[in-house]
Recover the amino acids of this structure.
């Protein structure tokens, strides 16, 4: 666990669709077509409301650009909302900057809704090919910086990943971050 004042960042292995945080993060594509991986699991377990609200959003705005974030209701999921963000595809250019902006935008949206907790997977590290170690470093660094701001209502961020390998990568990044803070 990483403490940022009274705020906490947790790393855990688990099913993001079972998280009881105020919101969970869906690593989406720009069309909000929830066809595979975590996006599919979230849409299936959340029920038709997530797909319907996603479809209506896309009708209104066209697409969700890389690094932007939008919010839908959570349907049948135990959380209140799903925040959908489009992370970068590895190799498209400025992937690190785009991932930082995606995480910052997710956290900002959660804060704008006065949410206190959020669960987030390793955005872009699946089919989008972002290297897991770099992803973990960016997600943790960006979240720490965000939580250091005054007046942020968000107080509990869970980095929740299904597979043990990704969890181990996040734990290693956490260890590196804690060592850097000591020096």
């Amino acid at each position: 666990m990483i403490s940022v004042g009274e705020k906490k960042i947790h790393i855990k292995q688990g099913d993001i669709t079972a998280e009881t945080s105020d919101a969970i993060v869906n690593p989406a594509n720009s069309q909000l077509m929830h066809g595979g991986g975590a996006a599919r699991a979230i849409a299936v377990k959340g029920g038709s409301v997530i797909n319907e609200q996603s479809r209506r959003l896309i009708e209104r705005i066209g697409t969700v650009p890389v690094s932007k974030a939008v919010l839908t209701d959570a349907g049948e999921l135990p959380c209140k909302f799903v925040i959908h963000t489009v992370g970068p595809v590895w190799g498209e250019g400025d992937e690190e900057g785009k991932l930082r902006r995606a995480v910052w935008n997710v956290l900002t949206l959660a804060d704008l809704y006065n949410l206190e907790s959020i669960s987030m997977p390793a955005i872009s590290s699946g089919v989008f090919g972002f290297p897991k170690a770099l992803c973990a470093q960016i997600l943790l660094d960006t979240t720490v910086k965000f939580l250091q701001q005054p007046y942020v209502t968000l107080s509990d961020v869970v980095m929740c990943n299904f597979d043990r390998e990704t969890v181990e990568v996040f734990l290693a990044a956490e260890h590196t971050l804690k060592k850097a803070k000591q020096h």
DSSP finds five helices and seven strands in the chain. The longest strand covers residues 7-13. The domain at 2-182 is CATH 3.40.220.10 (Leucine Aminopeptidase, subunit E; domain 1).
